Amino acid sequence: MAIDLASKIPLALENSINNLAKNVTLPAYLSEEKKADLTAQIKVLLKSLNAQMVAHYYVDADLQALTEETGGKVADSLEMANFGAQSSADILVVCGVKFMGETAKMLSPEKTILMPDIDATCSLDEGCPADEFQAFCQQYPGHKVVVYANTSVAVKAIADWVVTSGNALEIVTHLKEQGEKIIWGPDRHLGSWIQAETDIEMILWQGQCIVHDEFQVYELEALKAANPEAKVLVHPESPAEVVALADVVGSTRVMIESVQNMPDKSFIVATDNGIFWKMQQLAPQKKLIVAPTGGKDGHCISCAHCPWMAMNGLQNLHDCLENMTGQIKIEEPIRLKALESVNKMLDFSRQKGLIAKPMA
């Protein structure tokens, strides 16, 4: 069934997102001595405050390592949310982007949720303003509204279901079996892939991830030709012509498990290069190659890294714990409404074994 490309991101909004990305202030360079000092101080603060870290695969390797060293969780957004909800900590420090902090607060309103830099956002979130998305949805009555986790709490409050790249296919398949029609937002590439896999009727909001949208098909073909033994792993937020070249299409967790479990010795990886730390940790003998994000005239061939994920660093992590800054706050009526769609996702995912069930 044809996909309805009814919504286009206005040029002014697209330019605004691009300007936000260009104007990101990244953490200052730290010497190894300074890193060691900050790491020691952070460990003391975490223990004294009964705080715990959760970190996404795309943040700096130093933060991923520290998260695991201190009993926290490095994961995709779905498992981050699940882990945080079950944590006995009084404070959760979310190393990622703002929608991840909001999800943690939705699930754990009694906890203090901190972020190293609360201005770390996401192009998918920024490209789907709640008021515009709600007006868009009202044009299509009789449809279930399914939104990707990479959205604000206000957009989640509009939705019937929230999904991640790790469970979207299963949830949409379930809705198809129920005879539903879907409004999907905001990532058009992920939505198109799911529509092609399920053949369900979907109306797509036209958002995109500024990292995954940059992967280049012709350069990837050349890289495949130069590395014929390498398997190609592609995140479904990538353009369809890039996805078509993949040996494996899937979420960050699926990609990591593929590197770990497949017998092949080398992989071309089309997602944020922050994922390489976990891949190399689990499969140190494997060769990992960054998929190209720039053409012949591009300034960067392999710079697939989210500028907002890069805003997380050891110094601002330390500062948010020491000064209790970067707190996530959500108005209770919005939280409760958004929580309905998030809880549907979590309950479904636990029933299907996609994430761990709550501890008794």
What is the topological layout?
Layout: H1 11-22, H2 32-49, E1 51-56, H3 61-69, E2 73-75, H4 77-86, E3 91-95, H5 98-107, E4 112-114, H6 123-126, H7 130-138, E5 144-148, H8 153-158, E6 161-163, H9 168-177, E7 182-185, H10 188-198, E8 202-204, H11 217-226, E9 231-234, H12 240-243, E10 248-249, H13 252-261, E11 266-270, H14 276-282, E12 287-290, H15 314-323, H16 332-351
Parallel strand pairs: 1-2, 1-3, 3-4, 5-6, 5-7, 7-8, 9-10, 9-11, 11-12
Summarize the structure.
This protein is an alpha/beta fold. The chain contains 16 helices and 12 strands. The relative contact order is 0.17.
SSE order, one letter for each helix or strand: HHEHEHEHEHHEHEHEHEHEHEHEHEHH
Query: What is the CATH architecture term of the domain at 31-122 and 310-329?
Result: 3-Layer(aba) Sandwich
Low-confidence stretches: none
- The level-1 CATH class of the domain at 31-122 and 310-329: Alpha Beta
Strands of the largest sheet, in order across it? 2-1-3-4
Helix content: 40-55%
**Biggest beta-sheet profile:** 4 strands, parallel
Structural class: alpha/beta
CATH level 3 topology of the domain at 31-122 and 310-329: Rossmann fold
Number of strands: 12
Shape descriptor reads globular
Share of β-strand residues? 5-15%
The rounded Rg comes to 20 Å
End-to-end Cα distance? 44 Å
Number of helices: 16
CATH homologous superfamily title of the domain at 31-122 and 310-329:
NadA-like
Average pLDDT taken over every residue: 91
